[in-house]
Amino acid sequence: MSSSAACIFCKIIKGDIPSFKLFESDKIFAFLDIQPLSRGHALIIPKFHGEKLTDIPDEYLNEVLPVAKKLAKAADATDFNVLQNNGTIAHQVVPHVHFHMIPKPNETEGLGVGWPAQATDMDKLKALHEELKSKI
Ligand code: 5GP
Ligand code: ZN
């Protein structure tokens, strides 16, 4: 595990800051969000300190979605969002990668999402597709 002494989520993993732990393995840790958007809102974090998804080794990410499923089922969430923010402008506040599992029980509780869809442009999509394929 890679850890940062100043990071609140690294402190939660170590138990230096208390949390309502829901799941733990050698690679990940899951716990209740302290300011939930809805009942059952939980966070899943890798036991590897990194700010953005691109900083985290793949082996720390393998269990994330299976655990998100477990958390959604445990919260009896039939409608829910799995969210992971990268960077301040993308609404990331805590600089240790975390995945939210946010139940959406009704219109007002849970995640609200802005979705500024752009018009379909096949020429642009085709050019982008070629560029991205060449880089993956
Ligand atoms: P972000 O906006 O970075 O994606 O979300 C950070 C989340 O971490 C927020 O939902 C916030 O409520 C949660 N959070 C911040 N500090 C703590 C803490 O000390 N304990 C817990 N359980 N959650 C925290
Ligand atoms: Zn950390």
Automatic annotation (TrEMBL):
Question: CDD domains attached here?
Answer: HINT_subgroup
Please name the Pfam families in this protein's record.
HIT (PF01230)
Name the needed cofactors.
Answer: Mg(2+)
Q: Which GO terms describe its biological process?
A: nucleotide metabolic process
Q: Which UniProt keywords are given for this protein, alphabetically ordered?
A: Hydrolase, Magnesium, Nucleotide-binding
Q: Using the record's annotation, list all stretches that form the HIT domain.
A: 8-111
Q: Keyword check for rRNA-binding, yes or no.
A: no
Q: Which InterPro entries match?
A: HINT, Histidine_triad_CS, Histidine_triad_HIT, HIT-like, HIT-like_sf
The record places the motif (Histidine triad motif) at: 96-100
Domain of life, per UniProt, equals Eukaryota
Q: Where is the active site?
A: 98 (tele-amp-histidine intermediate)
Catalyses: adenosine 5'-phosphoramidate + H2O = NH4(+) + AMP
Question: What one GO molecular function would you report for this record?
Answer: hydrolase activity
**Which family does the record assign?**
Belongs to the HINT family.
Q: What is this protein called?
A: Adenosine 5'-monophosphoramidase HNT1
